[in-house]
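Collaborator request, handled under Task 6.
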Amino acid sequence: MAAMSLAAKRDWGDVGLNDIAKEANLSIADLRREFVCKNEILRAFQTEVDAQVLARTKPAGPDDTVRDQVFEALMTRFEVMGPHKEALKRIAAYLRCRPGEASMFVCSRMVTQYWTLANAGAKLDGPTALVRIAGLSAVYGKAFSIWLDDDSPSLDKTMATLDRGLTNGERGMQSLEKACETVCGLVRGLKRNFGGKGKPDGKPSPESGPVPSSA
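Structure tokens returned to the collaborator:
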């Protein structure tokens, strides 16, 4: 991608839309037909990485857990982004100083992790779905920051950070799901108790007096 090629050599703030159009052999008008701004070009890059990761996903084995599949998917993501690491370092450094602009990528990162979890067969319904997606997004964000400076061939630091984050996240989700089950059980019990009190049982109450005989 032309934008990544330029970002690998120059600060992202110094890369203009005219520069990207020229690098891609496009007119600025053609570039505008495809993208609204530079941030949208970055989101398009994210989408392309998503697609490549999903395409490389291997069928789960009989002993593979959801956690195993998520771990493999995120490590595959780092592999796909490997050729663009220098560009991503510069872009990350630029966005780190501009939290308002960086916040524009929160939704696209959540979408990425939604697809990661969905492809792994994770449960994505119920009250904990959003927490699961947001949690994985945070785990990935931490691993991504380590990956940017991890130059080892086997990415040991990145793998360790990701493994630790997934383990802690899994424990947290288990505790949260148990808490939700407890609360839901209490709510159901309260509904049964209070709902039963409002139903007539066929017996007159002391305050109602004798039941009049029919005429």
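The cover message to the collaborator said: "The two ends are 92 Å apart (CA to CA). The CA atoms of residues 113 and 137 lie 6 Å apart. Please let us know whether this matches your experimental observations."
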